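re: that chain from earlier
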Amino acid sequence: MKKLLLMLTFALTVFSVNALVYNVTVPAGTNTCYIAGEMNGWTHQLMTKVDAENYTIEIPSATIDHKYKYCSGPRWGYVEEDLEGNDVPNRSYSESDVVLNWMVYYDPTVPDENIVYNVTVPAGTKNCYIVGGWDGWSSFQKMDKIDPTHFTITILSNIQLKYLYSSGLDWEKIELTADGAYGPKRSYSTNDVVLKWSSILNTQKAR
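^ sequence. v structure.
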């Protein structure tokens, strides 16, 4: 019996020694922090709150070779960004990380619900698609055409999550600002307006 207990104690000690601890400092106003990476199959794992701006977690299966990212909520729509709103590359292990900004600051009191997105598009637009944080920016969903310049769609989402419109099924046809630049991701509005597309390949020719 004593031998068995010693073996179990030794196994647990080795297990603990091999575990990696992730520590991260987050922006003020963060409500929760999640980590997702190769060590957990890119699923969002809730971290332990140390104080208002620091979180930690120990992951036994992790190695220093595993890539990962932080999110302020339990989906990719809440992923970390830099201060200019740009994507952050997958991280390599560090004993102490710092998140500068979130795409969205997760608020657990905001529920998912069926949200209607309406948009006015440039004349000649054949199709309109929407892509957003509700599914981690992974799919372009085709909107219903109301008339030649208006489209709509209802999506299970929440009003926190960002999104963009596209005239096609890829990022090459994403919306632009009036001066032809790539604009910031949208915050929810009951009526949006697209001023220009980045590609005209999916628009109808003038007759």
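Residues 2-18 form the longest helix (17 residues).
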